[in-house]
Amino acid sequence: xxxxxxxxxxxxxxxxxxxxxxxxxxxxxxxxxxxxxxxxxxxxxxxxxxxxxxxxxxxxxxxxxxxxxxxxxxxxxxxxxxxxxxxxxxxxxxxxxxxxxxxxxxxxxxxxxxxxxxxxxxxxxxxxxxxxxxxxxxxxxxxxxxxxxxxxxxxxxxxxxxxxxxxxxxxxxxxxxxxxxxxxxxxxxxxxxxxxxxxxxxxxxxxxxxxxxxxxxxxxxxxxxxxxxxxxxxxxxxxxxxxxxxxxxxxxxxxxxxxxxxxxxxxxxxxxxxxxxxxxxxxxxxxxxxxxx
Length: 293
Description:
It comes from Hyphobacterium vulgare. This is HTH cro/C1-type domain-containing protein. The termini are far apart. This protein has two domains: 6-80, lambda repressor-like DNA-binding domains (434 Repressor (Amino-terminal Domain)), CATH 1.10.260.40; 111-279, Lipocalin (Beta Barrel). Helix content is 31%, strand content 25%. The chain has an eight-stranded antiparallel beta barrel with strand order 1-2-3-4-5-6-7-8. By secondary structure, it is of the alpha+beta class. α1 (6-16) packs parallel to α5 (73-80) and α2 (21-28) crosses α3 (32-40).
């Protein structure tokens, strides 16, 4: 078996069988972190585990054998009975972004995109309620090509879009079709660990008479994991939005988050909003016993 491309093939298997990594780990009787490393491409299965995985797939897809792992991606799709995929980059993406940059982002997404998958709660200061914080819910998923997709919601408003992972930053664009508006974002990422907290800048429009442009510093905190089933995850997303109080109750936002958001404006350059990497809150999970967050 060639090590290159295995992670992409495994992700395709999970998608085809509508199976989560946790479910696969349980079926193979291996640790879920091992399946995570397979999917991330950091390790490939041992001969024993590959045989277990192949037998598991063969029980569900007639004719699948160990030899299928050595096929190129189109051949592997055929072995799974999956129709050839459309070009992984949409027309909009290829028109907006140079091909070389898009390919780099897709490679980054294949390596690290799953580190950002999950449910997130975003916090930012309100533009018209001084001192109060607003919140929304975001669901992030990385597809088999390395493009990161998100869905964000608050009350009756829903944005959908995609993000590119370049270096350690996420560059995002989204749209709300009902109201005909868009949002843009640039967020500090996490270098090696799974992301637990992100921060960055979001640009959009206010819901005033003129749709005034606005930029907001924001912090995203992970609040849940994807199941691997798109329908189940969408139900969870809508439930999180319904349960959310868009204006955070007094005292609920930690002081560290409030202070972090407050320091993003520059006293030297009025009107400048920035989220410096040197003071970023973006991080992976805390080591056990290290900190209280």
